[in-house]
Amino acid sequence: MAREPCACGAEAKYRCPACQTPSCSLPCVKKHKAERQCSGQRDDSAFCDIRSFDDRVLLRDYQLLEGISRTIDASERGREQLVAKQGARGGTDGLSPARRELLRQAQWRGVGLELLPHGMQRQRENTSRYDHRRKRLAWRVEFHFAQVAIRHACAQVSEGCTLLTLLRSLLEPDFVDLEPVVSSEALDGAPSSSEPPARLFPATSNAAQRKSDGRRALLQHKLRRYTRVGAAGLMVFLRAEGRCANDPRFYLLTLHESLSTLLAGKRVIEFPTLHVATPDEAHSYPLLEAAPSASNQ
């Protein structure tokens, strides 16, 4: 029986597994794939009439089932390796010892801290940690100034620091304050630290200090709208997590209270994000207490 010739006229040596087109060489194979938009891969799940069923089709179906079995087995092994890798980072929960201690200390203080899976952006940005030597939490605090579309993050802020101190450090050029040491009274029985208080903005070399002062001055210039109001006249809100995206609600925070007091009883995802507002834009942050109850609906 004569073979069907290739499209170029030469004797065909190959046949496409997908469309059964004969070809004689690699250029002809590529040409027919481009012209017919052919993948060149056999459709292992194509329907076959019982009258055409033979050993070749039986072998094809068997190979298909074998391939599915190998894929399932490989995925199960991959999952076991992933779980083992996460366990090596700190146990079956996938947390490192430092993050597990951060979670434990936050829960002990009444903060509903939720840590995201490894690799997510907010997890990568989180610099919060528990200081074992001083027995206190240092939070990453992110400020959102909506009027000027600026987000500013403080990498590690002592839990005993007040919001007013933080705002003054951001808005007032000559403000210098000592970071408060968390005492046993502030944390309801937590051990106090005998270490001397550290500066909120640690001293560095002259060149680094000038660079830091320049960045701080630029930030204060961008926030001049808030500076005119004054730190004590601003309002700070914390979003209530777990609500519908189209119905956000916020907590109004007291400026003179510490972070540990303000975050107690609230849900925090990785680290707190605080929204700073002037009194005339406070209406953009509906309070959680103002949400209508089910009995009033």
TrEMBL record:
Required for box C/D snoRNAs accumulation involved in snoRNA processing, snoRNA transport to the nucleolus and ribosome biogenesis. Residues 186-207 are annotated as: Disordered. One of its GO terms (biological process) is box C/D snoRNP assembly. GO terms for cellular component: nucleus; pre-snoRNP complex. This is HIT-type domain-containing protein. The keyword Lipoprotein does not apply. CDD domains: zf-HIT_BCD1. Residues 3-38 form the HIT-type domain. Keywords: Metal-binding, Phosphoprotein, Zinc, Zinc-finger. GO terms for molecular function: zinc ion binding. PANTHER family: BOX C_D SNORNA PROTEIN 1, BOX C_D SNORNA PROTEIN 1-RELATED. Belongs to the BCD1 family. It holds the Pfam family zf-HIT.
